Each structure stands twice: as structure tokens, then as C-alpha cells.
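hi! just following up on the protien thing from before. the input was this:
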Amino acid sequence: MAWFKTVVILLLLAILFSLGNAIFHLTGGKGDPGKTVRALTWRIGLSIALLLVLLLAAHQGWITPHGIGH
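and the predicted 3d structure came back as:
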């Protein structure tokens, strides 16, 4: 399952990179809002991909969700 953890970590890092890229273009960019929107669109897509990967992993039994305090 080391590959699954690697995929999740890579997706999280890509999400953070995209968010940082959007912040950079928003604050220090040359006034091109298209780049900010594109970076945020990538972040949303990557977040959806991460959610789908986690749902697939739970469905396949690779991870086991549990309640708090159980």
C-alpha cells in the first residue's frame, strides 16, 4: 500500500502547489486574472481527483474509515 500513500501525498502536494500558484498570480502577477482562474480550476480538479481516489480506496478495502472514538 506504499504506492497508495504516495499517490495521496503527491495529489496533496499538487493541490498546495496549485493554490500557491494562484496566490502568486493574484498578488504579484501582471494583472492577468486568467492565470489565477486556471490555477484555481486545477486545484478544484485535483481535489475532486483526490476525493475519488479516497472513495475508490474505501470501496476496494484499501483503507478503512472509522468513526471518532471507536
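The radius of gyration is 16 Å.
The mean pLDDT is 89.
cheers
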